[in-house]
């Protein structure tokens, strides 16, 4: 939010760069393999229907589904996958004009 308030809205290049960065942030949360199993159509890591309730989107559905099963190996796996995508999304938020930060 701080960076969005500092944008020079008269400069179309700054607006485009910020918009591209937000687009990449959203794309960083898409898992090309989907949620696994029969849920390969649901690609978003953060918001997607859980297996238990397909009518409402939940936060980190693959993690919550793994917790519901109680399988610790599956929980660890899903948390690792979610962590990977969150870290990837974080890397898109770096300031584009400051490569060494």
CATH topology (level 3) name: Transcription Elongation Factor S-II, Chain A
* Sheet with most strands: 2 strands, antiparallel
**Strand composition percent:** 5-15%
What's the shape?
A: elongated
| CATH superfamily (homologous) name | Transferrin receptor-like, dimerisation domain
Number of helices: 4
Give the uncertain stretches in residue-range form.
none
Helix-strand string: HHEEHH
* Nearest-integer average pLDDT: 84
Number of domains: 1
- The CATH class: Mainly Alpha
Helix content: 40-55%
- Reported CATH architecture: Up-down Bundle
Rg measurement, Å: 17 Å
- Termini separation comes to 18 Å
How many strand segments?
A: 2
Task: Reconstruct the topology from this structure.
Layout: H1 2-5, H2 12-27, E1 47-49, E2 57-59, H3 61-69, H4 72-91
Antiparallel strand pairs: 1-2
Helix pairs in contact: 3-4
What does this structure look like?
- The chain is mainly alpha-helical.
- Helices cover 49% and strands 6% of the residues.
- The chain is elongated, with a radius of gyration of 17 Å.
- It has a two-stranded antiparallel sheet.
- Helix 3 packs antiparallel against helix 4.
- It has one domain (2-91): Transferrin receptor-like, dimerisation domain (Transcription Elongation Factor S-II, Chain A, Up-down Bundle).
Summarize the structure.
By secondary structure, the protein is mainly alpha-helical. The protein contains 4 helices and 2 strands; from the N terminus they run H-H-E-E-H-H.
